[in-house]
Write a structure and sequence with these properties.
GO terms for molecular function: DNA-binding transcription factor activity; sequence-specific DNA binding. The chain contains ten helices and eight strands. It is an alpha+beta fold.
Length: about 280
């Protein structure tokens, strides 16, 4: 249950510092995972993004204070992290369905976001096929693109990048470079930037040796890797596998996610067919 304990530690940290400016890097550090891993893990386990949770909790406390005190709206706006009373009123109305002035008069119902306590129901209904290996540091080569990453942890632009590399021959060239253990094209997410709300997404191949001039290289460090078999059309099967990994496999196996980019390995030439067989490589500690 190390995952649940570390996630709860991060939630407790958010609650203790709710009225401060919080960065995803600082929050994720409490859970000992990368910011991108934390965003995705938090969303899968709670159905909230980190931003939604913080905003919901702050506006819940603001509504309570508004209805139980004579604090001015402008003071509450600044206290709960809004630069102007107008921005506070807009966000307040969006969550609660009423304006701050009407809430003070007791008009309408308020929507409360309660403090989260993480409890995972380990279902385990669907078996997961996996193996664990120790792998020395290895190099991947390919192309990377900075992609927008919203507060939900979802990244846009990935599908378009895959379409491009398949259409312009880049994918075929990368396949020819494969000379490592992972026999397929790789999708890798790395370098989350909270300031720009972006991540680097790679389409790559495991390749040792010289790097062709128009490709970029990255070295993944020596680690223990869990290799999950993912069966089914990749656009559907990959997200389902990630959900099962975070909600079932990690909590029931006692591993922590290492701060190393996860790898989606498209080892089937046709990853869209219903019985396609691909892999997720997750570094653990």
């Amino acid at each position: 249950m190390a995952l649940i304990e570390s996630l709860q530690k991060a939630i407790d940290y958010m609650e203790e510092h709710l009225l401060e400016s919080l960065s995803i890097e600082t929050i994720a550090r409490q859970a000992s995972v990368s910011p991108y891993h934390f965003q995705r893990m938090f969303m899968i386990l709670t159905d909230y993004s980190v931003g939604e949770y913080l905003r919901g909790r702050r506006l819940t406390l603001a509504a309570k204070e508004l209805s139980s005190s004579d604090s001015k709206v402008i003071d509450l706006a600044y206290k709960y992290g809004y630069e102007t009373p107008e921005a506070f009123s807009k966000a307040f109305r969006k969550q609660h369905g009423v304006s701050p002035s009407k809430a003070r008069k007791g008009s309408g119902q308020l929507q409360s976001y309660n403090r989260l306590t993480i409890q995972v129901n380990l279902r385990g209904a669907e078996p997961m096929n996996y193996k664990i290996i120790e792998k020395e540091a290895f190099q991947v080569v390919g192309i990377k693109r900075e992609c927008p990453c919203g507060e939900t942890g979802e990244v846009s632009g990935i599908a378009e990048l895959w379409e491009e590399v398949n259409a312009d021959g880049t994918a075929d060239r990368l396949v020819q470079l494969i000379n490592g253990e992972i026999n397929g094209l790789l999708g890798i997410t790395n370098n989350y930037s909270e300031e720009k709300e972006t991540v680097d997404y790679w389409v790559a191949a495991e390749h040792s040796g010289e790097v062709p001039g128009d490709f970029t290289a990255m070295t993944l460090p020596s680690s223990r890797w869990v290799i999950f078999e993912v069966t089914g059309s990749a656009p559907v099967a990959m997200p389902e596998a990630w959900n099962q990994i975070y909600t079932e496999w990690i909590p029931s196996n006692g591993y922590e996610v290492a701060d190393i980019p996860a790898v989606e390995a498209y080892t089937d030439p046709d990853s869209y067919k219903d019985d396609s067989s691909n892999q997720i490589w997750l570094a653990v500690k």
